[in-house]
Amino acid sequence: MVNSSNCVSGMAPRIFAVLMVTMMGMCVMAVQAQAHKVNLFAYVEGDRVIVEGYFSAKSRAQDCLVEVFDEGGKKIHEGKTDEKGMYSFKLGDFPAFTGGLKIVLEAGMGHKTEYTLSVSDIPGSAKKDGHPTEQPGKNQPEALPGPPVGGSAQVADQAALIAAMEKALEKKLEPIVKMLGNQERLLLEEKYGGPRINDIVGGIGWIVGMVGMAAFFVGRNRSGKN
Question: What are the transmembrane regions (predicted)?
Fold first, then answer.
């Protein structure tokens, strides 16, 4: 009569080997999926839109197609990322559009992602809305009554001062906008980046350890009975 405990203990190495092969296959698949997941981030800096494509913190989406669509789904621009996974374009070069912009990045092999810039993300001075551009000082308060000759000069000086202040403020805010954009990108990476390689390997190591302990106790029981 065959001892059932001997059968179980004899099968333990085979079960362990099968589990090891299965887990190694899962590890390879998870690593490949993580490595090929493409991410996209975009932000406005001045009158330009900066696009960043990346697979991970150290792997950039190089030479990838970037397409820009308006709110109605019409493609209005396209380009390609550089060796750093970066691409930028000037809003002023676009035809008239309203609303936000949808930016799509294609990395090949079916890998595709998109990012949407809402209306609030696009400065009103940079986007085109199909209406005539307002002249500086048109909506400014009328100058106080004064000499006829000096009145127009005062309005012009006031408009020039406001324009200079806006330009200086925009220049000061650019680093802050970029910093906030980088912070948002890090938050997106943390939220959608998925498990890291270290997490995957650590999980597999934990499973292998549990299987090893089980095999050890099965072998110990077998030795004790013999």
Answer: 12-31, 200-219
DSSP assignment of 140-171 equals: SPPPPS--HHHHHHHHHHHHHHHHHHHHHHHH
Nearest to 222 by CA among 59, 19, 4, 40: 4
In angstroms, the CA 164 to CA 127 distance is 20
Six-digit token pair at 189? 């990476």
SS3 58: coil
DSSP result, 78-102:
EEE--TTSEEEEEGGGSPS--S-EE
Cα–Cα distance for residue pair 218/6, rounded to 1 Å: 10
Q: Is 187 exposed, middle or buried (0-12, 13-18, 19+ CB in 10 A)?
A: exposed
Q: What is the pLDDT of residues 2-24, one digit of tens each?
A: 455 555 455 556 666 666 666 66
Cα(18)–Cα(3) distance, integer angstroms? 23
Closest-CA residue to 91 (of 49, 39, 41): 49
Summarised one tens digit per residue, pLDDT across range 28-67 is 554 444 445 788 999 988 889 999 998 876 788 899 999 9
* Cα–Cα separations (whole angstroms), residue 24 to 85, 144, 171, 207, 213: 31, 80, 52, 11, 18
Q: Are strands 111-117 and 75-80 parallel, antiparallel or unpaired?
A: unpaired
Residue 3 tokens read as 């001892």
Q: Residue 105 CB: number of other CB atoms within 10 A?
A: 27
Q: Residue written as tokens 């090929």?
A: 36
- Max CA distance (Å), the chain: 121
